[in-house]
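Supplementary Methods. Inverse-folding protocol.

Structures were first reduced to a discrete structure-token string of length 433. This string, shown here, constituted the complete conditioning input.
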């Protein structure tokens, strides 16, 4: 018989209310040893006893098989959140034969195994737990809702329809088929290819919403990069000094910019130097700046940093505006002072606008695994299309490629061949989820 598992589902530590979850065939029986089992899916207040000792007065909800998060018979105990109360109840549960503590992600894994979630929804749940910004929350909820699965089901129906039409031409090859099915098959394949290509093009931006953007602050030594970082973060994240070359390493500050996760990088001042340690910092600065999603080039005199590639959306800014008097002879996108905060709001607004524009093309698929599955499916669809559009269509080969495309969609949803992925995916979950 399947084990019945239990765990604290809320965070460790003192709280007003904590939730203990129990799932498996003995969950109702375990509750019955402490209190009467309430009507299913109706919250009731119960006094929990063990050996005539009152453990707590809790809000109790019982779920039947097929009607819970895991798909199993389960119970939730909403108890007072003191460490003593939680430990007392967990100690009682571990003493009941057939019950054991849950492993990390085991509740969610059972939901997957029982068909309550597909693999993309599991990943969406993991992302929702980790969400730091509004954009991440919205994206992860969309994935958790099953939006990918619904889209895949629509694709599957088209693949099944095209495959059935092709199979009909194979099965009745020696007979006259009253309708030429090839135009419909060609239309279905063309639609599928366009859909797959569109989803693949949106994966990178969806991934960036999930993982966040990097914005590098780049410039010569002593132009105010560290002061700007401190102003952006609202704290002294980096040491500042009038001595050029103070910053040797890349200092990172993660922020929420209008719902997007953005990590600002304060890099070493870029210059030729005989100091070996500073030279290492300069090389690292160049490497990280070139790899960043956006660069803010900070300058005092309008000079360019040839070592770092400049892209159209990159921003130029006059730093240390507080130290200037009179007109400035060169053009810059922004004039700012990290010391006084002047111009910082406009700079942040510009950065937000650029990044928001980029994510407008984000698709449903949020991970590299998703992209690979759809990319392989697209390859199969293109091969099928090539066979169908031949002067003499090779129907059998086209039908086989359609079966291959369907298998890649099954891989995407975790229906076949994903056992090696599950350990890695569930390792990111906490106990109780």
């Amino acid at each position: 018989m399947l084990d019945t598992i239990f765990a604290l589902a809320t965070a460790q530590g003192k709280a007003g209310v904590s939730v203990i979850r129990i799932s498996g065939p003995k969950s109702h029986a375990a509750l019955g040893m402490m209190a009467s089992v309430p009507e299913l899916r109706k919250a009731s207040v119960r006094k929990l006893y063990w050996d005539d000792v009152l453990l707590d007065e809790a809000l109790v909800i019982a779920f039947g098989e097929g009607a819970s998060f895991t798909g199993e018979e389960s119970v939730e105990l909403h108890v007072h959140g003191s460490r003593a109360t939680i430990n007392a109840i967990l100690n009682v549960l571990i003493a009941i034969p057939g019950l054991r503590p849950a492993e990390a992600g085991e509740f969610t894994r059972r939901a997957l195994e029982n068909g309550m979630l597909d693999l993309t929804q599991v990943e969406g749940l993991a992302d929702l737990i980790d969400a730091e910004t509004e954009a991440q929350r919205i994206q992860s909820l969309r994935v958790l809702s099953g939006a990918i699965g619904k889209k895949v089901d629509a694709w599957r129906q088209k693949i099944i329809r095209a495959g059935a039409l092709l199979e009909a031409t194979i099965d009745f090859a020696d007979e006259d088929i009253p309708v030429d099915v090839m135009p419909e098959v060609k239309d279905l394949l063309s639609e599928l290819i366009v859909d797959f290509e569109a989803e693949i093009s949106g994966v990178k931006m969806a991934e960036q919403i999930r993982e966040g953007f990097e914005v590098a602050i780049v410039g010569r030594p002593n132009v105010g990069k560290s002061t700007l970082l401190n102003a952006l973060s609202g704290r002294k994240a980096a040491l500042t000094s009038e001595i050029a070359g103070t910053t040797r390493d890349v200092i990172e500050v993660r922020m929420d910019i209008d719902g997007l996760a953005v990590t600002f990088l304060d890099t070493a001042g870029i210059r030729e130097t005989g100091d070996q340690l500073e030279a290492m910092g300069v090389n690292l600065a160049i490497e990280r700046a070139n790899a960043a999603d956006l660069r803010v080039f900070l300058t005092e005199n309008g000079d360019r940093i040839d070592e770092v590639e400049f892209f159209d959306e990159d921003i130029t800014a006059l730093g240390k505006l507080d130290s200037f008097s009179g007109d400035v002879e060169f053009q810059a996108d922004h004039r700012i002072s990290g010391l006084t905060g002047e111009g910082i709001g406009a700079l942040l607004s510009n950065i937000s606008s650029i990044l928001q524009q980029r994510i407008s093309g984000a698709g449903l698929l949020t991970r590299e695994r998703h992209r690979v599955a759809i990319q392989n499916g697209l390859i199969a669809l293109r091969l099928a299309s090539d066979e169908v559009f031949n002067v003499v269509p090779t129907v059998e080969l086209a039908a086989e490629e359609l079966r291959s495309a369907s298998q890649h969609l099954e891989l995407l949803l975790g229906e076949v061949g994903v056992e090696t992925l599950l350990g890695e995916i569930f390792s990111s979950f906490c106990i109780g989820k």
